[in-house]
Amino acid sequence: MAYHIPALLKESIDGLNLKPDGIYVDVTFGGGGHSMEILKRLEKGKLIAFDQDDDAAVNVPADKRFLFLNQNFRFLRNNLHFNGIKSVDGLIADLGVSFHQFDEPSRGFTFRQDAPLDMRMNTAGTVTAAYLLNTMDEPLLANLFYNFGELTNSRRIAREIVAFRTIRPLATVKDIMDAVGMMAPHRQEHKFYAKLFQGLRIAVNHEIDFLKEMLEQALDVLAPGGRLVVITYHSLEDRVVKNFMRTGNFEGEEKKDFYGNIETPFRIITRKGITPGEEEIAENKRARSARLRVAEKI
């Protein structure tokens, strides 16, 4: 199994509008798919890559133009400045979970196999999915599943989890299925558990908050004319990216100038976003929910 097959690879690299001598950042290195394509098009340029997952380090190429930083992308600006880089010509982010993380049961990202409820992208972190399930009070759990898992029956889910943990702690995938399995709609079990695990994963890794931090810093470090390229996999993160590119804020609040034009720090390159074609989805089913958005700093 490949470490990760990047979605919309050609479209996203084309979106960077690469200059051979430019400086670029890949904030989600993973299996290195996007980074390798960028390096193919660089000559005297430089590429800096971030990944908080220690496992990603095995994919680092031996290339003098490349710098790998085993860091969360929320530390983008400080790390660039520490390495003497004040501005960059483009930044790419391929959000979500890598194939490697999904396919390694011990990481706890998948509900297809019984494993510990971990879900940490950074294994040095102390908060796991099991910790949240066993310590959060019922209202907070309900908010987690509603806001991050987009589950409308989140209050009942939280109630069942709190009741279950009075009998035994939730430690494995089987435990959470025993706790709330009766609520999974018939023939839609996969969708139910996908949303449940999405909510837990986002909470464990602070994905939405850290995404916002990274985007604000990306705007700061991008040079005028620099490209911001982001691939999202669910509506929550896509809404954040879309609003930020369109208005410069995460709420999507439009601020207009004297002439009625929307004031924004970006020029939108992909109005509706780009999604994979049938051929790509046939070859890589996990790409089906991907959406690519590209914007250029004004």
Largest sheet: 7 strands, mixed
The CATH H-level homologous superfamily of the largest domain = Vaccinia Virus protein VP39
Bulk shape: globular
Order of helices and strands: HEHEEHEHHHHHHHEHEHE
The neighbouring-strand order within the major sheet is 3-2-1-4-5-7-6
| Oligomeric grouping of the chains | single chain
Strand content: 5-15%
- Round the mean pLDDT to the nearest integer and report it: 95
Query: What's the CATH architecture name of the largest domain?
Result: 3-Layer(aba) Sandwich
In CATH terms, what is the fold-level topology of the largest domain? Answer: Rossmann fold
How far the N terminus sits from the C terminus, by CA atoms, comes to 41 Å
Number of domains: 2
User: How many helix segments?
Assistant: 12
Gyration radius from CA atoms, angstroms:
20 Å
Number of strands: 7
CATH class of the largest domain: Alpha Beta
The proportion of residues forming helix, as a percent range, comes to: 25-40%
Structural class: alpha/beta
